[in-house]
Amino acid sequence: MTLQISAAFDSGNIEVQSLDNLQDIQLKIRKDKDSDFYQWFYFRVTGAKGQALKMRITNAAGAAFTGGWEDYKAVASYDREEWFRIPGTSYDNGELIIEVTPEQDSLYISYFAPYSMERHADLIADCLQHEGVSLRVIGTSIEGQAMDCLTIGTGLKTFWVIARQHPGESMAEWWMEGFLARLTDMDDPVIKTMREKATFHIIPNMNPDGSCRGHLRTNYAGSNLNREWGVSNLEKSPEVHHTIAAMDADKPLFCLDVHGDEALPYNFIAGAEGIPDFTDKQAKDQADFLTAYKKASPDFQTEHGYPVSAPGKGNLTMCTNFTADRYNCLSMTLEMPFKDNANDPDAEVGWSPDRAAQLGHDALTAMADIVDQL
Q1: Which of 87, 170, 298, 328 is such that its CA lies 20 to 30 A from the CA of 32?
Q2: Catalytic site residues?
Q3: One domain, residues 185 and 101
Q4: What pLDDT digit, counting tens, does each position of 207-236 carry?
Q5: Cα dist. 62→28, 36, 55, 57, 68 in Å?
């Protein structure tokens, strides 16, 4: 069987430059459409069982976040269920090198474990099999894909949780899978109480077009959705436009925007301290949530993260700052690593879908600890 490398599938991204030499396979990451952003890759290698391969991603130096390649290991899977790290991954002379000997006829290799639009459809369908879960489509993407929004709970306190504004940050939807699995479990006493106190509006995937196209950061129009809040329109960022309209109708007391960070090997929160009028109440609620999340999850920490913006210097076109400012609510961004959790590393899988899902599960314990004070 002849060696082939393909990315012509949901979330796929790679361009083949040369397959002439198994020890010098040359590949290139395709840019997001109408954008200079790129870093996400996902492709399948066939016809190389038992053969040592050396693949070079030749344009890695031009990727959006070159710090993401340092101490990074690519992920791979034979069955697309279990993903493991490839030890033979290195960054050298501006190229990402992946050395591996496939044990089967087909091997999938990716930047992080992908979360396909097909799995998204399964997630929505599964949630709707549970009592007290409803779905509405708040709008459509540029390519006409549904903006799915689940509503769960009957309480007076409104919680908004969104994920995957940046489609290549697939760990965000794995987090959602764990979050929703727990939120639909009425045998969990924490959940029973939370659903009586709060109503959750949840968008598991804010960027369906970018997700299926294998983008890192943008939608079909090349827009970075997390720079479109307050400036969105139906031509370049309908996904944000529709979400703000839905939030205006059900104003959040709590908003969590779930992401992944290419460079930092930690789970952390970025807050809205930089908005013009960050209140003492917002500061206290945020501090209490961080304390509760750290207590609930051994994978969450507060020592490492982004520098805190000075008062009035926050970018109001970002979700967390926009929502904190517009609704005077507790609003935060959760970041997870592409690499590993440096505080509890796992050489075999690194930061993984299962660990992201557990972090989503544990977030509800932290939310329950602060719901009464919101």
Answers
A1: 87
A2: 335
A3: no
A4: 999 999 999 999 999 999 999 999 999 999
A5: 11, 9, 17, 11, 12
